[in-house]
Amino acid sequence: MANDEQIRSEVMAEAEGEVPERFTGEFPIQIRGLSNAFGEQTIHQDLDLDVRKGEILGVVGGSGTGKSVLMRSIIGLQRPSAGQIEVFGQDVSADSPSGEINLRSRWGVLFQGGALFSTLTVGENVQVPLKQFYPELVPELLDEIARYKVVLTGLPEDAASKYPSELSGGMRKRAGLARALALDPELLFLDEPTAGLDPIGAANFDALTRELTDTLGLTVFLITHDLDTLYAICDRVAVLADKRVVEVGTIPELLESDHPWIQEYFNGPRARAAQDSKTRAEASHPGHAERAGGKALDKAREGQA
Ligand SMILES: Nc1ncnc2c1ncn2[C@@H]1O[C@H](COP(=O)(O)OP(=O)(O)OP(=O)(O)O)[C@@H](O)[C@H]1O
Ligand SMILES: [Mg+2]
After folding, report:
1. 38: number of CA atoms within 13 Å, CB side?
2. Averaged pLDDT of the chain
3. How far apart are the first and last CA of the chain?
4. What was the pLDDT predicted at 296?
5. What is the pLDDT of residue 80?
6. Which protein residue's CA is at the shortest distance from atom 4 of ligand 1?
7. How many CA within 13 A on the CB side of residue 155?
8. pLDDT tens digits for 140-159?
9. Which ligand has an atom closest to residue 36 CA?
10. For atom 9 of ligand 1, which residue has the closest CA?
């Protein structure tokens, strides 16, 4: 099977488009003074956030605080009422259709709920963004890239020809991830990726996210309610409350905060359980911070073999 770099160069050659340089700056996402409102309801007000290149940034906040709306603003699906959002140094809040198209091929998104096309196979789902951005690609190459992405996410190769309804919840998440990775993005947006998975399935998905982030050099914006995910794989965590990002830092840094929601969230009984399980995982597998289960890396590697 062709390797990632080879496929990438073939895709680029086929597309005959301009190949964007990979981002070399420090902050692939920079948000200043962002405001979002729906009618009378203000969701964000004067929100600032910097996402560092190469990190997994966990984004937490109570239900309805605007985590998904924030993600939609960054990827240009929600026009802010004020403020500036730069992705790879380009202003996405400005009206520049060609720039936007160029940017869109540089990020991948796993929406809350997964949202695969149910009438398409997994492989065809992965091909959707490929066909959109590279309409000149021949079917054989589309098939090969799709199969490669499917295997990359730890699914067996024959999953490419299955329909979403024929897969388990965990497999559907991986299929969604495969589609998000279709265009070799630099930035990955994951909205509640482990919601609805059992603890072992969630742990495996976390480990896969960490592994792919490190091997593919991704930057990840990861919205989650899952404390285990925060402890296991996030480099920093941004907390949404009071219509803005009230704190961003490592978990030990956040524990110093006296914001009432942060205290309740990170010092409550469930947070202590997540911390304990991380400590146990580290004691039994030094160097592996993922929670109970933790066999995803091996599984993903088996899948790639
Ligand atoms: N298209 C829309 N039109 C009107 N209101 C909206 C729209 N999208 C979101 N909202 C409102 O914006 C607020 C924030 O929604 P959002 O989906 O971002 O919350 P969230 O933090 O992602 O919550 P959850 O953790 O439950 O997913 C909610 O009150 C929601 O009702
Ligand atoms: Mg949401």
Report:
1. 8
2. 87
3. 10
4. 40
5. 94
6. 38
7. 29
8. 999 999 999 999 999 999 99
9. 1
10. 69
What is the pTM (predicted TM-score) of this model?
A: 0.86
- Parse the chain into domains and list their residue ranges: 54-72+95-304
Distance 224 CA to ligand 2 centre (A): 9
Using the predicted structure, report yes or no on whether residue 297 has a pLDDT greater than 80: no
Is the confidence at residue 63, as pLDDT, over 80?
yes
- pLDDT, greater one: 33 or 302: 33
In a 13 Å sphere around the CA of 8, the CA atoms on its Cβ side amount to 12
Tokens representing residue 143 in the block: 């098939």
Task: Give the tokens for residue 249.
Answer: 């830092």
| Per-residue pLDDT tens over the stretch 7-56 | 666 666 555 555 567 899 999 999 999 999 999 999 999 999 999 999 99
From 40, 65, 68, give the residue whose CB has the most ligand 1 atoms within 8 Å, as the site to mutate: 68
- Ligand 1 is surrounded, with C-beta below 6 A, by 38, 43, 61, 63-69, 112
* Residue to mutate, 43, 72, 73, 222, ligand 1, most ligand atoms under 8 Å from C-beta: 43
pLDDT score recorded for residue 291: 44
Superfamily of domain 54-72+95-304: P-loop containing nucleotide triphosphate hydrolases (3.40.50.300)
